[in-house]
Amino acid sequence: MNRAVVVGIDGSRTAWSALAWAADDAGRRELPLRIVHVREPWLSEHPLSASSGKETLTERCDRLLAGAADRAHELAPGVRISTALVTGAVIERLRSESETADTVVVGSRGLGGFAGLVLGSVGFGLAGYADSPLVVVRRLPRDGSGEIVVGYDASPCADMALEYALAQAVARRARLRVLHGRRYPVAAPHPAGYGPLPVDEGAEIGRHLVLWREKYPDIELIESIVDEHPVPALAAASRTADLVVVGSRGLGGFTSAMLGSVSHGVLQRAHCPVSVVSAPRRGSLRRTSSEGA
């Protein structure tokens, strides 16, 4: 049975953008769409100014889900759509949804918190911890460029991000730009006594991409290696990309951290939807691949 694209909604502006992205993705990849609203248990069933004309919290939640389902049917009429009202802490319940989801999609900012922040607590709480790929939607691209960008450093997590990006490229009939940002130029001077000069990573990246080119011969795969930190390079690329894909952890930093500095920075600065792909802690992605075989 195909796993669903799960989208979390709360009625915020970015949640409706997330719903539109999720419905489109489900339609392109012929997957069911599951619309989830999390009702936090500490919220009162009746508003403080309750009267016979005021709707209850349950009624408001049901209305939100019904409206979201109607909108999704309009956007993706051929997609099988279901809704779910679940109770609990938002991050924990969406993490649970990710255990059986193909992808989890959320808006970058919900109804709570500080409106000036680019990414809310739910996005941060899920990135690096979701068992499925996570897509965070700040805004939808105005005009599709037909290009997906993936940050790549040849790490195992980057390979998983590349695999997801290739699947998206197939579904969208898009070209894929594989971007690697060198933190230091190859010819940069290195102080004596502090280790060797940085090596040219281009050849190694190219060798890693050979197998992917052979596996996806119909996808135009563009290799871009820039002498720039990955975060500003990916942020700049996101201005014209339809989707940016990153792994939750790269080769640098602390291996015990679930979310790396690059994925964290890209989530804060990207201008298009961002997908964060994590290494599965319980074999979730590998299990999905075997189920589809």
What does this structure look like?
The chain is an alpha/beta fold and 293 residues long. It has nine helices and ten strands. The protein has helices spanning 13-29, 57-75, 90-98, 121-126, 156-172, 202-215, 230-237, 261-269, 284-292; strands spanning 5-8, 33-39, 81-87, 103-107, 134-137, 147-151, 175-181, 221-226, 243-247, 274-277. It has a ten-stranded mixed sheet with strand order 3-2-1-4-5-10-9-6-7-8, with helices on both faces. It is elongated, with a radius of gyration of 20 Å. The termini are close together.
Task: Give the tags.
293 residues; 9 helices; ten-stranded mixed sheet
Task: Present the secondary structure layout.
Layout: E1 5-8, H1 13-29, E2 33-39, H2 57-75, E3 81-87, H3 90-98, E4 103-107, H4 121-126, E5 134-137, E6 147-151, H5 156-172, E7 175-181, H6 202-215, E8 221-226, H7 230-237, E9 243-247, H8 261-269, E10 274-277, H9 284-292
Parallel strand pairs: 1-2, 1-4, 2-3, 4-5, 6-7, 6-9, 7-8, 9-10
Antiparallel strand pairs: 5-10
Number of helices: 9
What is the end-to-end distance? 11 Å
In sequence order, what are the helices and strands, one letter per element? EHEHEHEHEEHEHEHEHEH
Give me the secondary-structure category.
Answer: alpha/beta
Radius of gyration from the CA trace? 20 Å
The major beta sheet can be summarized as: 10 strands, mixed
Instruction: Kindly state the percentage of residues in helix.
Output: 25-40%
Low-confidence stretches: 113-118, 251-259, 282-293
The general outline is elongated
Q: What percentage of amino acids are in beta strands?
A: 15-25%
Average pLDDT, all residues = 82
Strand order of the largest sheet: 3-2-1-4-5-10-9-6-7-8
Number of strand elements? 10
